[in-house]
Amino acid sequence: MEWETPWVDDKVIDIKGEAGISASYSALSDEDVKENNIISIESVLPDELLERILAYLPIASIFRASSVCKKWNEIVHSHRFLQNISTLSQKPWYFMFPSADDSIGFAYDPMIRKWYSIELRCDRTSRWFIASSCGLVCFMDHNTRSQLYVCNPITKISEKVEMPRCSREFDYSGLAISVDRSSRNYTVAVVISKDTPDDFVQWILSIHIYCSEAMMWLSPVTETLTGWRGGDSCVVCDGVFYFLIYSTRGLGFRGNRHGLLSYNLSSRSSGGMLIDSFIPVPCPLTCGRLMNLKNKLVLVGGIGKQDQPGIIKGIGIWILKGRDWEEVARMPHKYFQGFGEFDDVFASSGFDDLVYIQSYGAPCLLMFDMKMREWKWSQKCPILKRFPLQLFTGFSFEPRIDISP
C-alpha cells in the first residue's frame, strides 16, 4: 500500500517545539559516535520486534520512520505490520476547517499535542455532511445530495459511492458510517426527511443503507411522522442506527422538542414503527450531537433555558443506558466562558474516550476525556480569525494507515 503524505514533512506545526533533543547527545565522545554509527538497530533487533516497536509510534512518526531507510519503508508497508497496527487503537484527531469553503485545514493529534496541515480530496468542505468510523471518513454533498465519498484522510485513498436517486429529494438529512474492524467492510446509513405537501406537521422519513461488501443500496424504511422531522445528527452504535428528531409543532408547543429514534441494522428492523422506539432527550437542547464512544451512545448538547430553550446556559454530556440518559459531565463555567464568542451554536464530535467541543465563532478546541473525567484545552490552533463573521467547524476521526475504502 502506497500513501501520499505531504502533511508529514513540511507542513507539521509543532506549537511546543522540540528543544533539548540535541542536548542529550552532547556527552558522547567522538569515538562513541563512530562506534554507534557502525552498529545499526536492524542488526540488534529481530524484524518482528522492530515491527512491534514501530507499531506503537504515533502515526506521524510511523510515516517519518518509513523514510529512514529502504528496510524500514518495507516494514511499514508490509502486510504483517499493517495487521499488527490494526489491533492498536489511536486517540482520535480533530480536523478543523478555517472557513466554510476551505478543503485545506488543520488536524490535531492529542497524543503529541501537535497540529498538522491536511488537504482533503475532491474539494470537500464543511458544507458537506461528514461522518467517520475506524479511520474512514464519509462525505456527502450538501447541495445536490448526489455525491458521496469514503476516504482515509491520512493515506489519501478514497472511493466514490453512487447515491440512489430517491435520496436526493429531501429537506433534511443525516449521515453515518460504521466500519467492521474484522472484515474491513463498511456501512453507510442516511436518514432523510421531506415535508408533505398538504400538512406541514407531517413529515415523510426514510432510511437508506449502503453496504460496501454488496456494493448496493437498500431502502428498508419509509414512515410518516406527525409533529416530528429528522435532522442531521445520527450515528451507528453497536449495530443500531440512532438519529435525533425535532418537533414541528410550532412555538406554542411546551413538550420536549427533541427525541431519539433507532433502527437495528443487523436485523434490518425497528421492532415495529420507528416512532415506537422514541426516547426523549434529557433536557431542552441546542446543537445536540450523537457519537459512538466504545460502542456506547453518547449525546452532547447545549442545555437550553426552560423558558428560552434556544439560549444556552451550559453544555452537557450524557450516555444512554437502556432507555434512560445518565449525565456524565457538564462543562465548567470557566471553560464555557473561555470560548469568548460562544453563542447558541457549536460543533462536537468524538471517538474512543475523547469528546471534542468547538465554538463556531472561534478556533478554540476543548476536549473532555470520558475515562479520566477531565476537561482540557488543545494546543493553540494555527488558524487565525480574519473577519468577524468567519465561522469554524470540524470533525473527529481515528487516524489509521491499515484501512482503506
Q: What is the SS-derived class? A: mainly beta
* CATH architecture annotation name of the largest domain: 6 Propeller
Shape: globular
Identify the CATH class of the largest domain: Mainly Beta
Low-confidence runs of at least 5 consecutive residues: 8-35
> What is the CATH topology descriptor of the largest domain?
Neuraminidase
What count of helical segments does DSSP give?
8
Radius of gyration over C-alpha positions, nearest whole angstrom: 23 Å
Mean pLDDT: 82
**Number of structural domains:** 2
Largest sheet: 5 strands, antiparallel
Percentage of residues in strands: 35-45%
Number of strands: 25
Strand order of the largest sheet: 1-4-3-2-25
CATH superfamily grouping of the largest domain: Kelch-type beta propeller
Helical content, roughly? 10-25%
The first-to-last residue Cα distance is 13 Å
List keywords for this structure.
about 400 residues, mainly beta, 2 domains, 5-stranded antiparallel β-sheet, 4-stranded antiparallel β-sheet
Write a structural description.
Pathway: Protein modification; protein ubiquitination. It comes from Quercus lobata. Residues 39-85 form the F-box domain. This is F-box domain-containing protein. InterPro entries: Beta-prop_At3g26010-like (IPR056592), F-box-like_dom_sf (IPR036047), F-box_dom (IPR001810), FBXO31/39 (IPR045048), Gal_Oxase/kelch_b-propeller (IPR011043). With 405 residues, the protein is mostly beta strands. It has two domains: 6-86, no CATH class; 93-397, Neuraminidase (6 Propeller). 13% of the residues lie in helices and 41% in strands. It is built from eight helices and 25 strands. The protein has helices at 6-9, 30-38, 41-44, 47-55, 59-65, 70-76, 79-86, 333-338, and strands spanning 12-13, 93-97, 104-109, 114-119, 129-133, 136-140, 147-152, 157-162, 172-179, 186-195, 202-211, 216-226, 228-237, 240-247, 258-264, 279-280, 285-293, 296-304, 312-321, 324-330, 346-351, 354-359, 365-369, 374-377, 393-397. The strands form six sheets. The chain has a five-stranded antiparallel β-sheet. A four-stranded antiparallel β-sheet has the order 5-6-7-8, with no helix packed on it. Strands 9-10-11-12 form a four-stranded antiparallel β-sheet, with no helix packed on it. It is globular, with a radius of gyration of 23 Å.
